[in-house]
Amino acid sequence: MIGWLTGGTLLVGLLLLLWYKSKQPYWHRGVRFTDLDRFLEVLLRRGQPDGFMVVRPSSAREEEPFVQFAKRVDRARPARLELAFPLASWSETYFGPLERALAAADIQYTVQPTSSAGVVRAYLYAPVDTVEEAHRIALITLVPVLGLNPENTLDVAFGGVDPE
Length: 164
Prior knowledge:
Radius of gyration: 19 Å
Order of helices and strands: HEHEEEHEEHE
Strand order of the largest sheet: 1-7-2-3-4-6-5
Strand content: 25-35%
Number of domains: 1
Largest sheet: 7 strands, antiparallel
Distance between the termini: 44 Å
Helix content: 25-40%
Structural class: alpha+beta
């Protein structure tokens, strides 16, 4: 009887662990800068409305720079991608340079304050219609603004994206 109880407890624990792991984003590690367009294409084609993609340096830890793109869908226009860059304590030094870099590249963007008094005080949004434009924004943000070396690699994770 004790053996069945122990075995059942281990099985339930294993199933809970697998369920928890399945809810965590899968990180694609070692992505080259030149391959980001493929990942943006996946987000645009297979992403659910408001699905997202997070890009960070492969060496990043929590509270280090990242870039996030989201898929936006509305009735007035076809699906598009949107850069969403937070204004938080870790990103303050990047926020102004990002605004200047986007303006210099003639990329339209808006800054919207958040309604909560949480960690993120505002978001910079830059909507684009094509994967090529999103890739261009990603490179502007990652290389000159965040100061990453394009020879290094990135980690990419999706949320709200249908599997193949």
